[in-house]
Amino acid sequence: MKPTVKLGTAIMAMTLTLAGGTADAQHWHRHHLHYSYPHRVMTVVSRPAVTVRISNHLTQKERFCMAMAYLDTHPYLTVKQYARMTEMTKVAAEAELDAFAADASRPVKVVMRGKKKVYVTDGKAE
User: Fold this and answer.
1) What would the pLDDT profile of 20-31 be if each residue is shown by its tens digit?
2) DSSP state of 115
Protein backbone atom coordinates (compact mmCIF):
# COMPACT_ATOMS: atom_id res chain seq x y z
CA MET A 1 0.00 0.00 0.00
CA LYS A 2 1.15 3.47 -0.76
CA PRO A 3 1.85 5.85 2.17
CA THR A 4 -0.80 8.30 0.98
CA VAL A 5 -3.46 5.59 0.98
CA LYS A 6 -2.46 4.57 4.52
CA LEU A 7 -2.55 8.20 5.64
CA GLY A 8 -5.95 8.75 4.00
CA THR A 9 -7.32 5.58 5.63
CA ALA A 10 -6.01 6.65 9.04
CA ILE A 11 -7.52 10.13 8.68
CA MET A 12 -10.83 8.60 7.59
CA ALA A 13 -10.83 6.20 10.57
CA MET A 14 -10.09 9.03 13.01
CA THR A 15 -12.83 11.18 11.51
CA LEU A 16 -15.40 8.39 11.81
CA THR A 17 -14.33 7.66 15.40
CA LEU A 18 -14.59 11.30 16.41
CA ALA A 19 -17.94 11.73 14.67
CA GLY A 20 -19.30 8.59 16.33
CA GLY A 21 -18.06 9.79 19.75
CA THR A 22 -19.77 13.14 19.27
CA ALA A 23 -23.03 11.51 18.26
CA ASP A 24 -22.76 9.19 21.25
CA ALA A 25 -22.18 12.14 23.59
CA GLN A 26 -25.16 14.01 22.15
CA HIS A 27 -27.37 10.94 22.56
CA TRP A 28 -26.16 10.39 26.16
CA HIS A 29 -26.69 14.08 26.98
CA ARG A 30 -30.24 14.11 25.63
CA HIS A 31 -31.07 10.80 27.29
CA HIS A 32 -29.81 11.81 30.73
CA LEU A 33 -31.01 15.38 30.46
CA HIS A 34 -34.55 14.04 30.10
CA TYR A 35 -34.35 12.21 33.42
CA SER A 36 -32.31 14.80 35.30
CA TYR A 37 -34.50 17.78 34.42
CA PRO A 38 -38.14 16.76 34.01
CA HIS A 39 -40.53 18.92 32.07
CA ARG A 40 -41.89 21.90 33.97
CA VAL A 41 -45.48 21.72 35.13
CA MET A 42 -47.63 24.84 35.03
CA THR A 43 -50.58 25.08 37.38
CA VAL A 44 -53.48 27.27 36.40
CA VAL A 45 -55.70 28.40 39.25
CA SER A 46 -59.22 29.21 38.19
CA ARG A 47 -60.43 30.35 41.60
CA PRO A 48 -58.92 32.42 44.41
CA ALA A 49 -56.14 30.68 46.33
CA VAL A 50 -57.33 32.04 49.68
CA THR A 51 -60.59 30.62 50.92
CA VAL A 52 -62.04 32.15 54.06
CA ARG A 53 -64.41 29.93 55.96
CA ILE A 54 -66.27 31.25 58.95
CA SER A 55 -67.34 28.79 61.58
CA ASN A 56 -70.99 27.82 61.14
CA HIS A 57 -71.77 26.92 64.73
CA LEU A 58 -71.39 30.48 66.09
CA THR A 59 -72.92 33.69 64.84
CA GLN A 60 -70.89 36.88 64.58
CA LYS A 61 -72.75 38.27 67.58
CA GLU A 62 -71.84 35.19 69.65
CA ARG A 63 -68.19 35.49 68.57
CA PHE A 64 -68.19 39.18 69.55
CA CYS A 65 -69.58 38.26 72.98
CA MET A 66 -66.80 35.67 73.34
CA ALA A 67 -64.19 38.32 72.50
CA MET A 68 -65.67 40.77 75.01
CA ALA A 69 -65.81 38.10 77.74
CA TYR A 70 -62.15 37.29 77.06
CA LEU A 71 -61.20 40.98 77.20
CA ASP A 72 -62.99 41.32 80.56
CA THR A 73 -60.45 38.94 82.11
CA HIS A 74 -57.36 39.58 79.94
CA PRO A 75 -55.51 42.80 79.02
CA TYR A 76 -55.64 42.17 75.27
CA LEU A 77 -56.74 39.67 72.59
CA THR A 78 -54.47 38.41 69.80
CA VAL A 79 -55.58 37.17 66.40
CA LYS A 80 -54.13 33.73 67.19
CA GLN A 81 -56.13 33.47 70.43
CA TYR A 82 -59.35 34.65 68.75
CA ALA A 83 -58.82 32.15 65.92
CA ARG A 84 -58.45 29.34 68.46
CA MET A 85 -61.54 30.42 70.42
CA THR A 86 -63.79 30.69 67.37
CA GLU A 87 -62.21 27.89 65.28
CA MET A 88 -61.67 30.32 62.41
CA THR A 89 -58.59 30.72 60.25
CA LYS A 90 -56.17 33.44 61.29
CA VAL A 91 -57.02 35.44 58.17
CA ALA A 92 -60.77 35.31 58.89
CA ALA A 93 -60.21 36.01 62.59
CA GLU A 94 -58.09 39.09 61.86
CA ALA A 95 -60.63 40.36 59.33
CA GLU A 96 -63.46 39.99 61.83
CA LEU A 97 -61.52 41.66 64.68
CA ASP A 98 -60.64 44.53 62.33
CA ALA A 99 -64.34 44.84 61.48
CA PHE A 100 -65.18 44.98 65.21
CA ALA A 101 -62.55 47.68 65.73
CA ALA A 102 -63.76 49.70 62.72
CA ASP A 103 -67.33 49.76 64.06
CA ALA A 104 -67.58 52.87 66.24
CA SER A 105 -70.49 51.39 68.23
CA ARG A 106 -68.30 48.54 69.51
CA PRO A 107 -65.78 49.08 72.32
CA VAL A 108 -62.91 47.21 70.58
CA LYS A 109 -59.78 49.08 69.47
CA VAL A 110 -56.57 48.04 67.71
CA VAL A 111 -53.26 48.66 69.49
CA MET A 112 -49.78 47.93 68.14
CA ARG A 113 -47.39 46.33 70.62
CA GLY A 114 -44.09 46.34 68.78
CA LYS A 115 -44.83 44.51 65.53
CA LYS A 116 -47.83 42.68 66.98
CA LYS A 117 -51.40 43.86 66.48
CA VAL A 118 -53.61 43.27 69.52
CA TYR A 119 -57.18 44.18 70.33
CA VAL A 120 -58.28 45.87 73.56
CA THR A 121 -61.46 47.41 74.95
CA ASP A 122 -61.82 51.21 75.07
CA GLY A 123 -61.06 51.31 78.79
CA LYS A 124 -57.78 49.38 78.32
CA ALA A 125 -56.47 51.30 75.27
CA GLU A 126 -52.95 52.63 75.80
Assistant:
1) 655 555 555 555
2) T
